[in-house]
Every structure is written in structure tokens, then in C-alpha cells.
Amino acid sequence: YYFGKVDGKYGKITARAVKDFQDDNDLSTTISRPVTPPTVSDHSPVVISGVSGPQALYVNEQGTWTVTADDTYSNGLHYGVDWGDSPTPEKGTAFSASVQQSATFTHIYSKPGIYNPTFLVTNSNRNQEQGASTSLSVSVRSKPTTFPAGCTSNSGFSPTTERSCDDTVVINPEIPVTPPTYGYQYLPIDSNVSGTVSLVSANEDKVYKFNGSVNPHTPDWKWAVTINNNGTSSKYISRLILLHNISGEGWETKYSSTNPLGKVLGLLATTSTQCTSCDPYNTYSDNMNYLVSAGGSLSFYAYGEPANRMFSGGYLIVEFTDGTSTKISIPSSSITPGTVVSQQPSVTVISPNGGESFNLGNSMNINYSVANLASTDWIRINLVRPGTSFPSVTIASIRAEQNAGSYTWIIPTTTTPASDYEISVDVCRTSFGTGCGNGATDYSNATFSITAQPSLVANAMIKARLSNVRSLAEVVYDTTSPFGYGTASNSSSCTAPSANSLFAATNNGTSVILDSITEAINSSGGASFCGSTTSAWVASVQLKIPENGNNYWCVDSTGFSVGRAAIASGTSCAI
């Protein structure tokens, strides 16, 4: 029996060895005569002071156990273990000896079950052997095949949990497992912010500008990004994080130790606008601080590397300086690395989008978003009244490289007031200014109004009343003998004209002229000038509000009917 000290005494260890021998060889275990056990000395027996090890394991998972024991008077302790996974221990292997105060064992169970590995510690001295044993139950179960939501194996990336599938959490109600945690916390989502992201190219070569050498991962990816802010507050972008569904690989515009995957992401470079001539590496900074105006949009390109496989889709996280964010899904793409696909452009009118009211002479902020612009494309903005004979009015034509997603238009005072206006925005895929073939168009979702301001109505009244003066003055000329504009001159006053002058009430027909002048002055509330001779005249009245840099409206006997910066003098509107 290969364990314990051979000293010729018949003690507990020898008795066990004999019994094992009899059992192994089918011998009778009946004792034919009594055996007197050896005298036990009075010194302390072996004491096992601790045993530690796993309470649960999976099949083929290695476990580690540590046993510590004490015997004050022993020259050394011997450790052994019976793992309990065979009918009988294998002599010489099931028990391994040591002369330490502690021993560590490892073992792998190949079948599920409840096992009770027994640890034996013995001492040995010149007079006797003593021993102690203990056991520790371990439950061995087959490993379940449960993976994170969205995963079918231990590889890949889960868009559901937004974690790598190699962070597998095995679920077993009898074996509590703490799932992995990450330092990144998503900022609150602002529901007023949305956007679109699409892959434009898989054949860029940009990243070399960052590392100062030729890019070893050419070709790179290029995405077209549009962010729409439908809220009432402007937003400033602080960081972008773009991830795709292949093992969670991705990029960000600001390096950080905290991100959705708990690992460092590659650099995401962005342009300031969506134009082919923009170089992202000349304008890039860690803190982008790009502005997305309230009710407006921002379009730009984003670059990341390497594009050495198909893009399977993903999402873009946009973080803002106000502590909010938005998350935009990115569809998968069939673009093969090394190719550039010319995609059909798209456009969306954001505002005005229906229900608004604008006054003549005031400004209108027109906002829109576009995607997939080519360098030769251009934008055309129009004022339209669908379903009427009103002709489309082109407000602006903008080249692709100058596109900003917004335009401010001063509504001309000559625009006809109406309540059925819309804005149309065209993406024109032709030579600049030659039409809009093969492009895209979008309209306001509903109509809006353009109305005349009260002061503009007053201006129109002033112009109309002074226009009456011209026709009435010709009546006075034709009925005066000899022919003339009255029989006396008037130096300047419209409200107290000289007797027998054109503007006095004493001549035939001149009372009607005075009435028109008075109505124009009442609409204005400002200064006036009326000068006449028998052969010429002029009338000038201040406008209610300036128009196109003109403060006065002027008519005269030569046919002038014009705006002037200064009041007239003499008998002519000419400056």
C-alpha cells in the first residue's frame, strides 16, 4: 500500500490498506480474531484547519482546491485526495503525498453530477501515525448555450445589447453570475433630434494624414450624415460615436476611456459641411462644437477605417454639449470595399412646413436637408402655389460645395399676399442653372401665408393717392385758360397751398387734388412737399416705413412716380 510510513504496526492506515486489498481481490473481510488497536499517544492529533474550493463547476472546467492542516508534534504532514469520480481510488495517483502545512489540488470532472472530493491528511513519527479527513461537495453541470440577446455564438456583435458577443454571460439559476459592466452611460435622448446616415464610399484614403504615413488600411469608409433639430433650442455637437455590427468595431471623434464597448475606438474624422472639396483633416478637432440650429439641420461627411469588408449596418450616437444625445440607425450596405457608388440624391424641406405666416418685407428662414450630393449637383429653392396659375419663383440657386442646409430670404414687398404658398427645394443633377434632371424634389408638407403689414398697406395707400394727383392735374391743366396747372404758383406747402395754385381748393377740380394729397399725408403721418407753377408741379410724401432704402414717394408733371431717399424740392422728382 503506497501511502504512509511502513513501520510494522497495525493501525488505522494498515487496516484500510488491508480492507482495500480484500475488496479489490474479492476476499472475505471477516476478521477471525480480535485485533488490539495500537495505543494512541497523548500528543495532539492532525487537525484540518481549512479547505476551500468551488461549489459549482461546468463539465470539463478545471477547479482548484486548497487544504491546510496542523500537527504540532509531527515531522511532516502528508496530503491526499479522493475525487470521487471513479469506483475506487487509483492507488498512487488518487492520493498524492506532500510534507507541507497546506496543499493545492486541481481537477477536471468529465461528467455532470454531485461529487464529494475527500481530502486526507496524515502525520508520521517514530511511534505512530494519525490522520484526519474532510470533504467538500461540488455540483458539476453541463454548460448551457445561452448567449446575449442578439447573439447566436461567442463571436460577433449584438445590436440588441450593444456589446460584443464574446462577453457571454452564462445563465444558470444555481450558479449566480455577475454580467460585465462598462463605464459608458448613454446621455438622455432628445426626441426632437433625428437624422440619417448612409454609406457613400468604401474607397477613401484619408487616415494616413493622421498617422503621418501611407494608410495601411486603404480603402476607408465614408458616410453621409444629416442631423435634424426640430426643437426650439440650438444644439452643439460634442462627440460622435459610430459603430457597426461586426464585433462592435467603430470610431469616435473624441478619444475617451468610456464608450459603449469599454475599449478604445478608432478615430472618426468629419467635414464641416457635406461637400466633396472639404478636407476633414484640415478642420478636425477633438471637440467638434458643430452647430445644429433650432428648426434647422446640419449635413457633413464622416470617415473611418478600415473598409476591408462589407458594412453590415450599425448606428451613430451624437452627443451634445447640453448633456443630451440622439441615436441614428445606419442601414447595411452592399458597397464592396474599393468601390464608390453614386447614389440617388434626396432632399427634405424642414421649414417652412405649413401653418406659418410671414409679412411682406420680413425675412423667411428656409431649412432643408439633403443627402448623397455629388460635387456637380446644385440646390434650387422656389416659392410656389401648387394648383394655381401662379408661376414658380426661384428664390436661390446654390452650388453643392456651398450648401449649408438653410437660406434666409427677404420677402419682396411686391409679392402677392396669399395663404396657399409652399417652398420647394430641388437637387439638380445637371450643369449649374440648366435644369433639374435626374435629381430630387421636396415640398412643404402644407401651405403657409404671406400677408401685408399694416405699414406696408399705408405705403400702398400713399402711392395710390399720389397717383390720383397726376390724372387730376391733367384735368386742371385742360380746363384752365390759358392752359396751365392753375393760375398761380405754390412754393412748398401741401396743407396750406397758395390760392389759385394747383393744390388750392379755389380752382376748378383742385379740391379733389387737395383731398387726395390730404389722404396720402394722413396715411403717412410724416412730412410732405407740394411745389407748382403754371407749367410744372411735384408732390412728395413720406412713406410709413422705408422701402428699399427710400423714405419718400414722389410724383410730378413729367411722369415720374418713384421712391426717393430725400423729400423733393422745386417742381421735379429728379434728383
Task: Sum this structure up briefly.
By secondary structure, the chain is mainly beta. The protein is 11% helix and 35% strand. The chain is built from 5 helices and 34 strands.
Shape verdict:
rod-shaped
Share of residues in helices? 10-25%
* Arithmetic mean of pLDDT: 76
Strand content: 35-45%
Task: Tell me what you see in this structure.
With 575 residues, the protein is mostly beta strands. It is built from five helices and 34 strands. The strands form nine sheets. Strands 14, 15, 16, 18, 20 and 21 form a six-stranded mixed sheet that branches. Strands 23, 25, 26, 28, 29 and 30 form a six-stranded mixed sheet that branches. A four-stranded antiparallel sheet has the order 12-13-19-17. A hairpin with a 5-residue loop joins β14 and β15. α4 (454-479) runs antiparallel to α5. The model is unreliable at 31-43, 89-99, 166-184 and 210-217 (pLDDT under 50).
